Fold each of these.
Amino acid sequence: MNKNILLIMVFLASGALVYAQNYNHVTAIDTNFEDGTLGGWAPRGSPEKGLEKLEVVKDIKHSGTSSLRVFNRSMTWHGPIHKLTDNAVAGDVYSVSAWIYFRDGPATGAFTFSVERSFKDASKEHAYQNVTSFQAKKGEWTELKTEYTVGADPTQAGIWVYFELPYKEDNLVQPNDKIDFWLDDIKFVKLDPASRPKAEMNIPDLYKAWEKSFDIGVAVSRSDVDVSSQNSQLLTKHFTVLVAGNEQKMDAIQPTEGKFNWEPADTIISFGEMTGMRLRWHPLVQHTQNPAWVFQDKANASRPVSKDALNQRLKTHIQTIVRRYKGRVESYDVINEALSERSGLRTGGEGSKWHEILGPEYIDNAFRWAREVDPRAQLVINDFNLESDSRKRQEMFNLVRGMKQRGVPVDAVGLQMHIDLKSPSVQEIRETIELFASLGVKVMITEMDVSMYSSASEAKKPVTDALLLEQAQRYKDIFAMLRDQAQKKNLTDMVVIWGTTDNTSWKNDFPVPGRTDAPLLFDSRFQSKPAFWGLVDPSKVRGLR
Ligand code: XIL
């Protein structure tokens, strides 16, 4: 090679390296409380609601000699707040890092990082958004680390950031919601747009590889569908079915009786409609993520609601949703996770107040009420571990067989398929699908992901190339079997993956706080993983069988 060319190449390569390390990031907030001041942090409370207090203390600290103590809290939302910017710019991305500590209350506690925005029209009420929640362990400092992207809203003006506990209505606040907490080393950095990874676009479309067998869907959050985000580009390119990871759940949809909060779910649904995707709803009924009011007596919140009143509430909830989205949402998880982890149906002891108050007929009723409003919607009963747990599988079989015999309109069994690198086997999944199909219902894969971990006791490990290859093999083998099952008409025409990029997966910090996972098809930099190529063009991955 000509020496000059070599020199130019060396120059370019080193230039690129230097450039990569010299992005123009801007520090917006950087407080370590070492100077003894609050550094711009202030309490959120108002005098009428009682004021929480902030002080710089020296006995507890993450680094240096001091930290910020937040105390005298009486509401979940009591915590420290700080101005981030007066000039909100859509698409700006801030990296967020803060360390949190608490020593009272539960062994692990949830903390939420949220933002408040004002508007150019100063008379408009401020908007509040919970960006993300973290689990922290009692007695240990935990890092709250995330990114916050300013949404596309030309009417917004200023942004404040704050830390709080997960929201509860004032009358539901418990002693554990009022604990003191400490913060230290809080840093917000506005990232230079040049440093932001760009979604990999010059690759084949995932859905096209499978469109002869089924559409491929994806679970999203409201921020995923922000059209200015890289994530939204991956969504529109690769997936043809959309479902919400949380925004369609009862606590999100009907936080207060009769006051439906459609905005987050609608944002997702409109994005789907705008981009030509088919729509699912998850779920109409499940035992978790319910608002507290639904199981409480209206006159006396400390007493359980009566059976009649709860039936009415359930019917209203289901029918209000199905009526609103009739002809738009094609497929509903009517009931999610109704089966026990031990035997039979999930009852009060395992957290199902629906079963406790209404008895097992709540399941049949829910399906009938949904069908009454939308005769054409596909109605699904959804659960997990049906492939790996033969007892649970048989119980789902018995349940659905009974429903069919009673004329209950159930169209499909949903297999969540939150699986891992080892289990269940392809054979077990195939047998499960064939078993349910023998009842005359279809099977839908509703929430697939492939975790790097087989149990909660496994310690955090690096995601190696070998593990990524194993994962690609799993996706490839399972999808090959699904193609075969689709040909046999055992499957519905949708297979849904529970998320787009690894960093937004629900498997991060769950079931083990602090343990990150990598169960999806795209990595946190919006790049395709071997698992993606396993589904689209296996010849691109060395070592795939
Ligand atoms: C999960 C969401 O992905 C998380 O963001 C949330 O914190 C908890 O719920 N099975 C289900 C889904 O049916 O509703 C769950 O979704 C994942 C497991």
Amino acid sequence: MKVLVTGGAGFIGANFVHTTVQTMPDAEVTVLDKLTYAGNKNSIAGLERVKLVQGDVADYDTVEPLVGEADVVVHFAAESHNDNSLKGPWPFIKSNIVGTFTLLEAVRKHGTRLHHISTDEVYGDLKIGEKRKFKPGDPYIPSSPYSASKASSDHLVRAWVRSFGIAATISNCSNNYGPYQHIEKFIPRTVTNLMDGIRPRIYGTGEQIRDWIHVLDHNTAVWDIINRGRIGETYLIGANGELSNLQVTKMILEEFGLDPNDFEHVNDRPGHDQRYAIDNTKLVEELGWHPHYTDFRDGLRQTIKWYRDNEAWWRAQKEEVEARYRANGQ
Ligand code: NAD
Ligand code: TDX
């Protein structure tokens, strides 16, 4: 099976490539990745049956022949950080909207199976304290330029299914954690800050809730959807992992053997989404998917160990990332 993975040098895509070659001996993977600041070719270096093509998913001449050679396309490539989208939205429009459009046109030409990776953030946010969770079919009410660009890409995929009959599925997943996540994101930023003796930075009150899932559980769900999902359907991926930012910060401090209250409150994110939570009933009942990482603290401990053991992977970017946050009062 020939698998084209866009964004396969990023966090979730790289983990997906690792699992795919480990578990599917007949899989040949081509990664199409622009290698932006968020892409790292070392994340997939040395893997057998993996070829890396550096290129832009918004460039049709690059994308079209690669889609033509593939049996399935898994589309992870995107600008992914909310804070960056507030500073400069254009790369999000270009990569996430124009990029998905470009890929869809190539998929339409070749009739290739597509799975589109999206986020729960397209549904906006929920209130802290309410029981409701996001369900398939909920209205799209994105808050940030990032989530609006992902919402747009989902709309394009659905329109291409309905109007042109392409064979696509969509998944909307909650917050991922695990190895190879860029140190601009909350958990790896906090972990690498503590390694450098810097206190964790909590935006605003820290009461905001995220629904954490281990990246490897996200990716088993993606393969289940590719293998057994119904064409044209949307599946929500989540593992019932709701925790506030304060709770996560305190757990990380405890894992470092530090005082769980030794953190700082910093400037809040404009438009900060309050709570995300996924109702995964459809995925579980229809496809029989179950998460493997059900103990968050255990998964977090393994993730902290990974960052300790792989300092060479992230060190070069640390100073610049923190300088950007400092300039923002964060
Ligand atoms: P990431 O920022 O770590 O990786 C994105 C990758 O895409 C990078 O390797 C980057 O170089 C590449 N890329 C960006 N623009 C490109 C372009 N124009 N052409 C080709 N490659 C390009 O992101 P991630 O956290 O791994 O997220 C992957 C996907 O999963 C995204 O679509 C994101 O919206 C979605 N998602 C992420 C999460 C999460 O918690 N991280 C949750 C739900 C959904
Ligand atoms: O230093 C920090 N302190 C802090 O309190 C950082 C970097 C973040 N935060 C807060 C903001 C959020 O409430 O932590 C929470 C998580 O922040 P991010 O890691 O930036 O993730 P989030 O904005 O929730 O979005 C993530 O999940 C959904 C991914 O980055 C998206 O790509 C995905 O779609």
